[in-house]
Amino acid sequence: MLTDLYVFADSPVHRARPVVKIAALVVLCTSLFVFEGWIAVTVAGVLVFAGFALAGLGPRHAIVSLRPALWILAAIFAVQLYMTDVVFAGFIVARFVVLILAAALVTLTTRTSEFVDGILSALRFAPSWVPKAQIALAVSLFLRFVPLVRTALDDVREAQRARGLDRNLKAILVPLVVRILKTADEVSQAIYARSFD
Amino acid sequence: MDTRDVVFIALFAAIVAALAVFPPITLPVVGVPVTAQSLGVMLAGGVLGAARGGLALVLFLALVALGLPLLAGGRGGFGVFLGPSGGFLVGWIVAAFAIGFLTELFWNRLNYVVALAICVAGGVVLLYAIGVPWIAAVAKIPVGTALTGSLPFIPGDIVKALVAAGVIVTVKRSYPIITPRSRTQKQT
Amino acid sequence: MIAFTDVSVEKNGVAILGGITVHLKERRVGIIGRNGSGKSTFARLFNGIEKPTSGRVALDAPHEREALRRHVGFVFQNPDNQIVYPIVSEDLAFGLKNLKLSARETQARIEAVLERFDLTHLRDRFTHQLSGGEKQMIALAGVLVMRPRMIVLDEPTTLLDLWNKRKFMTAIDALDEHVVLVSHDLDLLADFDRVLHIEDGTIVADGDPATVVAGYVASARC
Fold first, then answer.
1. Of C98, C215, C203, C77, whose CA–CA distance to C140 is shortest?
2. Measured between CB atoms, which of C85, C90, C95 is closest to A195?
3. Which CATH number describes the domain made up of B3-183?
4. Using CB atoms within 10 A of its CB, is residue A101 exposed (0-12), middle (13-18) or buried (19+)?
5. Which of A115, A119, A136, B129 is 20 to 30 Å apart from C45, CA to CA?
């Protein structure tokens, strides 16, 4: 729904409950910093590798996930190499690689709707001071409106292209923002009209 | 916090998400790709104000932390917060809040120069003040080195502040949402 | 059915509607008027989206505090601004959840409304992937599923093509509920029981469609 990142497959990783996957990810990422050292990175790396294999994800998925961070990782490696040695530089970068791949493993094997169902069912156990109805509404509205904002963005760019302004960010963002604000006002009227308090 | 505020928060979080697919501009000299998402952060604060702007980013980043692939390049998941750019992500909340707070404070005197100063203060200075030490900590490098390494990104962020300030001032004229802070204080 | 007593609306010191008094009992009421005449604001008074600055809006049997909002449904021009949830069945359930109905009753009502308009095949679809015509039908279904006694529609056919407009109006014609339709499409009002013409925030003409529409058309000649 949001992006085409979800990789269709039927594997134990895909079938695992989102709550379990999210919790596992938090534990794994945190341990990498608590138990600092090659042992933790190696264990986590093996686990993530096993997860990728189990989920049927290949090196291609790993590369796509790592690409946005490549420039920063290269820079950090260079700095560490200059300051310390190749072993420590490798450790720091390997830890980041494992972190990124672990997060990607969860993202690639969980549907957006599963995440949201997970959030909404988790909200049921939240204490009473949490504005549950408002949070649930905000999450649903967010998912409902990401595609709408994208369409609006495309519309505005097309309109501005006709005027030769499609490289002008301000000429694109002002109409987009004003349109979204007007939409927001009408959406809140519609929500009120349907008896939400 | 009424329904209208919830809708604004959700829709601006959606704008930040939608800006992930906005074609990145590559700066000619250093070759650093600049995505439009942090522009959305400045707009959230400058258009919605402190509380709603900050909460829009809280919503967005909470969904990112849970694993939704909402960051540019389709990244998401708790791991990204412990990665090199984690500080900048957390800083987005602070930046949106700060820009919103300053915009509310200077609402009656808001012109392009004031808005630009606010965007630079919140969206560049404050953001780097959080993001740079974070890189230093997780990558175990000195803060000075982390700052030097981040310098190539600053021109792009200045460009975003230039654009955001223009948008904020124009939207203020055509569809103002913010209640100025000075006036609300007088009323209470 | 619904009575307006000396209703005025002001926004930021500007008078939008002034001293409207009217009692509407008819099953089909049309509202016409040029852009900016105040007709949209008037329409939004019916179910309390807008509140009168002075005066009173009341249903004939106002025993409940939330009577207006509970008994009057509202359909907007753009269904994209009305559909709140990403999946059709979730969106239909939204209003019912707010009415605190049981899960079983909610489910039954959703099935019934989908069947009533022959929309059952859309139940599990993503709302953003629907066509414009389908979206407006879902927006209508999302209001009717709450079983209002009256339904107000603000230019609901503006964004629809000729076919979808016919389909939508066929559905409207078949409704047992009272209907108030704001429209620039004067043909749609031909069979209506009563038409109000609003200009500069007041009702300037009120009567059968033929007379009121003719007067409106004449006033547009310049």
1. C77
2. C95
3. 1.10.1760.20
4. buried
5. A136
For tokens 């009702």, the residue is: C203
Question: For the segment A85-101, what is each residue's pLDDT rounded down to a tens digit?
Answer: 899 999 989 998 999 89
Put simply, the answer to whether B18 touches A67 (Cβ < 8 Å) is: no
**Domain locations in chain A?**
12-120, 127-193
pLDDT digits (tens, 9 = 90+) for A115-136: 877 887 888 888 888 888 889 8
- Report phi then psi at C103, rounded to 5: -60, -40
Gap between the Cα atoms of B167 and B115, Å rounded? 9
Note whether B17 contacts A: Cβ–Cβ < 8 A. Answer: yes
**DSSP string of B35-90, one letter each residue:** -THHHHHHHHHHHH-HHHHHHHHHHHHHHHHHT---BTTTB-STHHHHSTTHHHHH
Q: Which chain C residues have a beta carbon less than 8 Å from that of A190?
A: 74, 76, 81-82, 84
Binary contact (C83, A191; C-beta < 8 A): no
Q: Which partners does chain C have (≥3 C-beta pairs < 8 Å)?
A: A
Query: Which residues, numbered 42 to 61 in chain A, qualify as contacts with chain B under a Cβ-Cβ cut-off of 8 Å?
Result: none
Q: Say which CATH architecture domain C2-219 belongs to.
A: 3-Layer(aba) Sandwich (3.40)
**CA–CA dist B85, B150 (Å, integer):** 10
Chains that touch A (3 or more CB pairs under 8 A): B, C
**Interchain contact, C81 vs A193, CB within 8 Å:** no
Q: How many residues does chain B have?
A: 188
Residues B177, A170: C-beta atoms closer than 8 Å: no
Contact yes or no for B89/A79 (Cβ under 8 A)? no
A84 contacts chain C (CB < 8 A): no
* pLDDT tens track, chain B, 188 positions: 789 999 999 999 999 998 887 665 554 444 455 678 889 999 999 999 999 999 999 999 999 988 888 887 777 788 888 888 889 999 999 999 999 999 999 999 999 999 999 999 999 999 999 999 998 998 888 898 888 888 888 888 998 999 999 999 999 998 998 888 765 444 43
CA–CA min distance B7, chain A (Å): 6
Alpha-carbon gap, residue A107 to A118, rounded angstroms: 14
pLDDT at C112: 95
- How many Å apart are CA C209 and CA C30, to the nearest integer? 8
Smallest Cβ–Cβ distance between A169 and the set B1, B163, B174 belongs to B163
pLDDT tens digits, one per residue of C54-83: 999 988 865 555 578 889 999 999 999 999
Q: How is residue A130 annotated by DSSP?
A: S
Of B15, B80, B141, the CB nearest to A79: B141
Which of B17, B79, C140 minimizes the C-alpha distance to A145? B17
Query: Distance between CA atoms of C175 and C150, rounded to whole angstroms?
Result: 10
ipTM: 0.87
Contact between A64 and A100 under an 8 Å Cβ cutoff? The reply is: no
Q: Where do the structural domains in chain B lie, given as residue ranges? A: 3-183
Residue B76 CB contacts under 8 Å (≥ 6 apart), including other chains: A103, A107, B63, B64, B66, B67, B68, B69, B70
- Domain borders along chain C are 2-219
